[in-house]
Structure formats: structure tokens, C-alpha cells
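Cross-posting from the chemistry board since nobody answered there.

I work mostly on the small-molecule side, so proteins are not my area. We synthesized 2-acetamido-2-deoxy-beta-D-glucopyranose and want a rough idea of how it might sit in this target. Sequence and SMILES are below. Is it possible to get a predicted 3D structure of the two together?
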Amino acid sequence: MKSFTTISSVIFAVFIFCLAAWCCGEADEDVAPMEKTEKEALYSTIQGFVGNWWNGSALYPDPCGWTPIQGVYCDLFDGLWYVTALNIGPIHDNSLDCATNIDFRPKLFELKHLKTLSFFNCFISPRRHPIAIPSNDWEKLAGSLESLEFRSNPGLIGQVHTSFGLLEKLQSLVLLESGLTGKLPTKIGNLINLKRLVLAGNWFTGTIPESFGGLSQLLILDLSRNTLYGPLPSTLGRLTSLLKLDLSNNQLERMLPSEISNLKNLTLLDLRNNKFSGGLTKSLQGMYSLEQLVLSNNPIGGVLACLEWHDLHNLVILDLSNTGLKGEIPKSLSKLKRLRYLGLSDNNLTGKLPTKLVTLPCVSSLYLNGNNLTGELNFSEGFYGKMGRRFGAWSNPNLCYQVGLKSARHVPYGVKPCQQEEVTVLEPDSRNKLAGENLNQNSHLVASLGFPSYVIDGFWWVSLLEMLICQFLSCFL
Ligand SMILES: *[C@@H]1O[C@H](CO)[C@@H](O)[C@H](O)[C@H]1NC(C)=O
Ligand SMILES: *[C@@H]1O[C@H](CO)[C@@H](O)[C@H](O)[C@H]1NC(C)=O
Ligand SMILES: *[C@@H]1O[C@H](CO)[C@@H](O)[C@H](O)[C@H]1NC(C)=O
Ligand SMILES: *[C@@H]1O[C@H](CO)[C@@H](O)[C@H](O)[C@H]1NC(C)=O
Ligand SMILES: *[C@@H]1O[C@H](CO)[C@@H](O)[C@H](O)[C@H]1NC(C)=O
């Protein structure tokens, strides 16, 4: 027994000795060997963003090995380690914070295997320390850079340089919510490997370059929240892979080009808050993958019935409020069985509501207010109860609801009962009250797609059941 303990002690001692020898033997060399220039370039680059106090060689002597830097990723090329990804900004709890006075060090462009470069919430002081993206040297990263992203950097100002157009391997270019100005560089159209181009929430102006039509692999194009003007270039019809196109909140104008009907895979088209006109183009009908079509607040004009709406049978959200539409509401809208949000408010729609509209199985928000619809509303009491204020029919002076609703709470808001047509049902007082209340339903588009908030005891089950049926149906439609 004793000898066994001795032997195991010896084995243990030998093991410890070997371990120590292995550790000491390796300590002189880097566990993750790097070129000296690569290491220095990394330290200098980061120091430029976090401040001169940061002594990389002291704090992180082996940045691709046993002293990793948060946000830095490395990879092995011919037996040496190189930086492949650099994420600057407070992404994780222990990420390095950016300094107030940041500078792009020239050595950034010497990281020759850099694939991903991203900045989040780093340039945050537009008044005191505005910083421009450097104009030179981007071509040095052309052989490797696949993703370049700046998100939430209000202190990042100036123009996007045409040299970005040289980054031919780029798959993702995101310049989101920064203070960038000027025109969109035509050269961006050369980045033929781009899958995502997001330039939203800046101060970009001018027209959308025709060259963007060359981005044939693009899946997402988001230029929303800028001050772009002019017509949509017809070349956008060449972006046949596109899944999402968001150009909302700009000053874009004129007719939609007929070529957009080539965007057969598009699921989202958001053009709200622009100045598009010239009527609903027939070409919208060809975009049969569309799930969200949002055109609200544009002087589009024309008649609603000019499209065969049933072709767009994947639609879940259709918002055409305040688009200057005339004419009747066509029956074909009631074929959109997946529809959850239908906004037709503040137009000039006339005539009777198609009775089939009652049969939309999934609808949870329906706005018809601010038109000149006539006749009787023919929805069930349960429908009014379920929808609450998400059924809008007020401000249609010639519309009424069928009397006999059992509960006053299930009366459609702001609509008079049919029976008393000769009498003015709404007192002047209550009329003012209606007009005064702020029912700003458009700004809550997404919020209102949730469960009905106006739910009363017994209707809870009915609503739940309808939700389930909807889910069931939409799986098989
Ligand atoms: C950084 O640290 C190294 C090693 O501790 C030291 O030699 C060097 O002088 C330091 N550099 C600065 C700028 O403090
Ligand atoms: C459209 O989507 C389908 C199915 O996802 C895909 O097979 C097809 O290649 C896409 N079309 C284009 C032009 O990308
Ligand atoms: C609706 O049409 C009438 C008569 O054509 C016109 O006077 C009115 O300005 C239109 N309203 C809207 C909101 O387009
Ligand atoms: C609403 O339609 C009626 C006829 O249905 C018409 O007499 C009236 O002028 C229209 N009102 C507006 C504001 O267009
Ligand atoms: C209302 O709809 C019901 C069932 O869909 C139908 O029987 C009835 O005739 C309709 N009433 C009116 C006034 O359209």
C-alpha cells in the first residue's frame, strides 16, 4: 500500500515536472506566431480608436493566442496568424469603449487578411468630435474585406468615398444611422458580390444611381430615412434576387417603373412617406412573393380596383392609407386570405364595402376611416369586439352599422346606426370629441399586429380560436 502511494507520488512529480518543462519551454515562443508588422498594425489600429493609454503589447502580448482581445478574431495562413475580424465598440460587456477623439490609423489598411470590419456606437459626438471616414487606402483591403459595417455612429460625417467601389469582395456594406452626407457614389454599383446594402438613416441626397442595377446578387437594399429624390431608376428591375427593398422616408417621386415586376422574390416593398405618383402600376401585380406592401403617404392617386389583388396572395400587410386613391374597394381584396393588416384610410374611396371583406380570416387591423364609403357595415358583433379600435370606419359620413348589437362596447367607433338615418345621431359635441381624439393608427403599424388588446371575457376564447384557425390556414394556403 505504502509502495503504491510512493509510486503514484513519483508519477505525479514526473507529470508536474513535464508540465512545467513544457510550459517553460514554450514560454519564449508565441503560442500563436504572428508577423511583427501584423501585430504592430493591430495594436496601432485599436489604439487609434480607444486612446493612447491603451498599450496593446503590454496588455495583450499574444492577441491571436492566449491573450485574446475582445472583438478581434484571427485565422491561420501559412503557419502564421492574421487578424480576420475587427469589431470596435461596446458590443459586449467587456468590449473596449471608443475614445472621444478617434483616429483611423493608416496601419488599419495593413491588416492584409481582414475580412470583417465593424464599428458600433463608436463615433458618438457629432458636434465636438466629428470624424470623417478616411478617403485613401481602402483599395489595400480590396483583396480580403467582405463585410464593412458602421452602425449607430452619429459622429461619423462626410461623404462616402468612391474608393469604397474598389472593395470588390464586399458582400455586406452597412452605413446605418450615421451623419453621412452627399450623393450615393455611383461606383458602389461595381460591388457585384454585395448581398446586403444598407445606407439608411443618414443625410444622403441626390438620386439613386442607375448603376445600383448591377448588384445582381443583392438580397437586401435599404436606403430609407435619407433625403433622396427623383424617380426610381428602371435598372432596379435587374435586382432579381432581391428579398427586401426599403426606400421609405425619402423624397422619391414619379411613377414606379414597370420593371419592378421582375422582382419576383421580393417579400417586402416599403415606399411609405415619399412623393410617388402616377397611380398604382399594374407591375405591382407581378410581384407575387410580396408579404408586405407599404405605400402609405404618397400622392399616388388613381383607382384601387386597377390591380388584380388576388395575384398578391402572400400579402400579410397592405398599407395604402393616404395615397389619394379613388373608386370602390374591389372584391379581389377579400381573396387575400393571409392579410393581417389592411390600411385604406384617408383616401377618396366610395361605394359599398364588399360583403366578402367580412370573410378575411386573419385580419387583425382594418382601417377604412377618412373615406366616403356608403351603405351598411355587415360585420358580426364578435368582429367589432375582437378588433376594438383596430377597426377604423369613422369619418365616412354616409356609412352606418346594422342595429341590434347587444353590447354598446361592440359598436364600431364613430359610426352611426343605420335605423336612424334621417336623424343626426352624433351630437355636435361628440363629433368634436371624435375629431379631437388622436387616433394615430398609422404610426403603430407593427404594434397593432399583435393580439387584440380590446378583449372581453367571452370573446377571449373566440379570438383565440380564430387565431389558431388563422395559423392553421396560413400553413396550408
Ligand atoms: C508598452 O508596454 C511595453 C512593455 O511593457 C513597454 O516596453 C512600452 O514602453 C510601453 N509603451 C508605452 C507607449 O507605454
Ligand atoms: C428566388 O427564390 C427561389 C426560391 O428561394 C430561388 O430558387 C431562386 O433562385 C430565386 N431567384 C433569384 C433570381 O434569385
Ligand atoms: C376627394 O375627391 C373630392 C372630389 O373629387 C376632392 O374635392 C377632394 O379633394 C378629394 N379628397 C382627397 C383627400 O383626395
Ligand atoms: C360622398 O359621396 C356622395 C355620394 O355618394 C357625394 O354626394 C358627396 O359629395 C361625396 N362627398 C365627398 C366629400 O366627396
Ligand atoms: C350580411 O351578411 C349576411 C351573411 O354574410 C347576409 O346574410 C346578409 O344578407 C348581409 N346583409 C347585408 C345588408 O348585406
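Reply from a structural biologist on the board:
Welcome over. Reading the output above for you: Helices lie at 2-27, 36-50, 56-59, 381-387, 428-436, 457-476. The radius of gyration is 31 Å. Happy to explain the C-alpha cell format if needed.
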